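anyone seen this seq b4? input:
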Amino acid sequence: MTDSNLQRANAIVREAIDAAISSAREIGVQVAAYRNGRLAVDVWGGLADETSGRKVDGDTLFNVYSVTKAVAATALHIQAERGRIEYDAPVIRYWPEYGRHGKEKTTVRDVLTHRAGVPQMPEGVTPERMCNWEWMTAAIADLKPLAEPGTKTLYLSMTYGWIVGELVRRTDPAHRSLGRFVREDLAQPLGITDLWIGIPDAAESRIAKQTDAMRPVPPEYMPPLFLASMPQQVALTPAVFERGDVRRAEVAGVGGIFNARSEARFWALLANGGELDGTRLLSRERVARLNEPRANSEEPDPVMFGIPLPISVGGYWLGGANTPVCSAANPRALCHPGQGGSIGWADPDTNVAVAICHNKLFNASSPAEDPILPIASAVRAALSA
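predicted toks r here
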């Protein structure tokens, strides 16, 4: 994309960002997009910190919550590409201690597709214990499944990251942590600078301060499994995830701290068939299979308020009616939403990858209330102009 095309695309998206901020629906926003493997949108606006007046810039970092799951899943796919892990193998082949209390038949694919039966966080979990990888993985290995593995969809709201991350660590010859693996084997080869699962000290001053504008859900409407999957003491809130120890820990399913420019480049790898700028991390054939819907994709998920989740065999969400930000892109698009409205996606048919980061957490009750949707529409308009 030429500089003039980038400027035109940025202007279209900036207008949507400015409208969201001026209406007080957003505070700080950052958007980046790739088309055909090239940066096509790179724009931002608003405040990273309302209390100090610090403005968002291209290097500002944001909590992206469950968007992190897409990065963790991709790390596992890299291990599969290298022949180090098989999707249909039992988890205990790589992690023997996991096979307790009837979990011995759980497959790697069951984990990827949220059918492992262990959505609940371990009893006694605290923010401090959540920062202790060994405590968390041992406690998760000792969980009793709430359904026979492979038989029922139960969204692994938080446990997903530790299970996938431990599988990556156990199959890595150097036994590197997931955060280090992502830095060294995914981000660095692609020239990605800010895809953090566990930040270094130097990055902390660049993180945007969050504002929690989530509407409380009356207790009588909260599914018990939802509460079990995200207990209040470790809930996805600024009070927990702005703690210094949590920021530095590898909370592998929900603790990612990215900027849009780096996240969009990650999604561009998938949109571009597993290769970017001459560096191939995944085969085109493998990426082409990642957006196949998982079995029983219409099954209601009792963790997530009984809503069917459009999850692929690769562990990503799919575009479509249940993911409005992705819907206009393609029901074959790989994407992942995060708590409070963060989103990223890769459209393999148009070779478009998008990341939208922000710091005002919301839970819109209808598409009309969603401040991200007009920004996503502006991205699509900018890339089709």
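The two ends are 12 Å apart (CA to CA). The chain has one domain: 3-384. kinda curious what u guys think
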